[in-house]
Write a structure and sequence with these properties.
Elements (H helix, E strand, L loop, with lengths): L2 H20 L3 H6 L6 E6 L6 H5 L6 E6 L9 H12 L5 E7 L3 H7 L7 H14 L1 H5 L4 H22 L1 H8 L5 E7 L6
Parallel strand pairs: 1-2, 1-3, 3-4
Helix pairs in contact: 5-6
The chain binds cobalt (II) ion.
The site of cobalt (II) ion has 7 residues, from helix 5.
């Protein structure tokens, strides 16, 4: 087995031991079920792990990740996660978290073909078109990309709010809050 692969099993054993040292009932309690108060919709980027950066434990955040943290109305995976989180787990917060330096967003700013992902990035390009005036006025490429990341999160929060799942939750008086956040991989905040 390659070294890294062996290593993750070793890491797992150590994590189980450390966790049980702190709380002998940890896994027994988790096995009973989950009641996470938060749904996290984030980027697949390996540098943005929901639990680590928020200091939360297993059981505390329900997670959906895709390239560039998109909320797309035909994405059955995202819709299923959202529906389950809102209507079965009764989460009270949904977070869309983008991040500066997002490869998906940066690629969507250019015109090179990458592959299948081009079809996914098409949705981000629509966000660019919506905000083209503001974005084109930013001459510095990094600053423009950073603002695009922020605008993309704002648009995804709108799209999230417009899903029938969130609309029905609100019209039924469910206390459901939606949030847009941007994470900086350069400083961890
Ligand atoms: Co990203």
């Amino acid at each position: 087995m390659p070294k890294l692969f062996e290593q993750i099993f070793e890491n797992n054993k150590k994590w189980v031991k450390d966790t049980l040292d702190r709380d002998p009932e940890f896994f027994k309690d988790l096995a009973l079920g989950q009641t996470p108060p938060i749904l996290w919709i984030g980027c697949s980027d390996s540098r943005v792990p929901a639990n680590e950066i928020t200091g939360t434990k297993p059981g505390e955040i329900f997670v959906h990740r895709n390239i560039a943290n998109m909320v797309i109305h035909t994405d059955m995976s995202m819709l299923s996660v959202l529906d389950y989180a809102v209507n079965v787990l009764n989460v009270s917060h949904v977070i869309v978290c983008g991040h500066y330096g997002c490869g998906g967003v940066i690629t969507a700013m250019g015109s090179t073909q990458v592959g299948i992902i081009d079809n996914w990035l098409r949705h981000i390009k629509d966000v660019y078109r919506l905000h083209q005036k503001e974005l084109d006025a930013i001459k510095d490429e990094k600053k423009r990309a950073d603002r695009f990341v922020e605008l993309n999160v704002i648009e995804q929060v709108f799209d999230l709010s417009k899903t029938s799942i969130v609309q029905n939750a609100w019209s039924n008086g469910k206390p459901l809050f939606v949030h847009g956040l941007v994470y900086d991989i350069g400083n961890g905040i």
